[in-house]
Write a structure and sequence with these properties.
Blueprint: E1 8-11, E2 17-19, E3 28-32, H1 35-39, H2 41-60
Antiparallel strand pairs: 1-2, 1-3
Length: 75
């Protein structure tokens, strides 16, 4: 198992890719195996957030009829 110091991180404040633990933990996303993967961190974060929000909306029944469970398109 490799340590995080051997990995690449995306600095959320500066937008720069870093190798190892250069920045405080709250300021970085990762770890990533390559600098190219780390550079794509904002895209990955947006996509995961969108997917999580959609999943939560489905689980919470947002957009559906609270009585029948049907969405407005189904009615």
């Amino acid at each position: 198992m490799t340590s995080g110091n051997d990995k690449y991180w995306y600095n959320l404040k500066t937008g720069q890719v870093e190798k190892g633990f250069e920045s405080p933990a709250p300021d970085r996303a990762g770890p990533f195996d390559t600098p190219e993967e780390a550079a794509k961190a904002p895209e990955v974060i947006r996509e995961r957030s969108r997917a999580w929000a959609e999943e939560e909306a489905r689980e919470d029944g947002w957009g559906g009829d609270s009585v029948s469970g049907q969405t407005r398109d189904d009615q």
